[in-house]
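Hi R.,

Here's the chain you asked about this morning:
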Amino acid sequence: MNDGGEVASVRLGAWLAIPEPLIVEAAAKSGYDWIGFDLQHGAWDLGTAFRGIQLADALGKAVIVRIHEEELPLIPRVLDHGASGIVLAMASSPETVAAAVEHSRYQPNSTRSYGGQRYGMRAEPKDVGEIRPQIYPMIEMRQAVDKIRNIAAVPGIAGLHIGPTDLSLALGLGMSRTPPIYDNAIKAIVSAGHDHGMPVTMHAVHRETVADVLKFGVDELVLTTDIELLRAAMVDQVASARSLVAGVSRSATVPGAYGRAS
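And here is the predicted structure, written out as tokens:
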């Protein structure tokens, strides 16, 4: 993600739920600008996340880790292992967001204990107080929208991250994302971020809806998750194969089949 300020072009983030090194490597080599690890809904645990961050670091890709706002003590741990920043899911208040920033900054001004940047394997400034990992509150609750100006004003955050599905649910719209209620909420979030000189990221965007999302003026997009991409590709492959098979006459039927009880 960006460090804030004016964004020259829309950046694209990968979003990984599967803790598999091959998928991390594939994402790192696919042209994404950064990679997100989902510790909120994904299958990652701390061990697999640490190894994934190590691989991404070696491949030169920044990793942003999503955690729930109730898991603030995890922030310094994932940062010690090399994450560039945190997406704070279900961020509900400026106070919680400020606490997340505090967990990411070293003493004496904040509360983070020193563990070195990847245990001394990453260069760091002489003054570790200059190390300011990126904190992105994820706006997906009604109370967060109501307090968006206060959240955007929290010192030390790098940007705002929109969770459209939970936001739609929070607004009482179900999965429909019905305008104008939904649109107005998104516009309010984008406006608050830009007024404070920060980029705004929109989560879980399919390529077919990119144009619809860009109309809100967001600066970064997350192009759905690895498992959704894999499942969609499998469904498409199976449907295509069945269509082709249906058009081919076969002279004999072979008894038995893999995956079928005998």
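One quick note: DSSP finds ten helices and eight strands in the chain.

Cheers,
M.
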